[in-house]
């Protein structure tokens, strides 16, 4: 499993974008998978930086990934307190449709083939099937 560790600064999202670009080229990913991967992983990292670590620069985000012939798996972990991922508002409901936030996990879930959080809610596992 590969691992990247970085401080909780928005500018570090570009490191993640570059990593996904490199993976896409190296493994010749189909553009559909690349697009889903980029959106979901960047959203997960953004959530870790902004919501998990509350933009506290001294806190870190750990991004691990493994690639096989069948799938690509990312694990994103922040240094925060976690959250209750079981109790999220549905962004598609009329009362939430106008809100400017609250769609990240919804998007991640719909773009990936598997999405699961650890019990604490400070680590998310995102899986994309390649076959």
SSE blueprint and pairings:
Layout: E1 2-7, H1 13-26, H2 31-52, E2 60-67, E3 71-78, H3 104-111, E4 114-117, E5 123-129
Going across the biggest sheet, name each strand in turn: 1-2-3-5-4
Helix percent reads 25-40%
Full CATH superfamily name: Histidine kinase-like ATPase, C-terminal domain
| Shape label | globular
Write down the overall mean pLDDT: 92
Task: Give the terminus-to-terminus CA distance.
Answer: 20 Å
Please outline the major beta sheet.
5 strands, antiparallel
Count of separate DSSP helical elements = 3
Keywords: Kinase, Serine/threonine-protein kinase, Transferase
Protein name: Serine/threonine-protein kinase RsbW
InterPro entries: Anti-sigma-factor_SerPK, HATPase_C_sf, HATPase_dom
Domain Histidine kinase/HSP90-like ATPase: 8-127
Description:
It contains three helices and five strands, in the order βααββαββ. The chain is of the alpha+beta class. The protein has one domain (2-129): Histidine kinase-like ATPase, C-terminal domain (Heat Shock Protein 90). A hairpin with a 5-residue loop joins strand 4 and strand 5 (123-129). The mean pLDDT is 92. It holds the Pfam family HATPase_c_2.
Summarize the structure.
The protein is α+β, with helices and mostly antiparallel strands. Helix content is 34%, strand content 25%. The mean pLDDT is 92.
Features:
about 130 residues; alpha+beta; Heat Shock Protein 90; five-stranded antiparallel β-sheet; 3 helices; 5 strands; about 35% helix; globular; serine/threonine-protein kinase; protein serine/threonine kinase activity; Serine/threonine-protein kinase RsbW
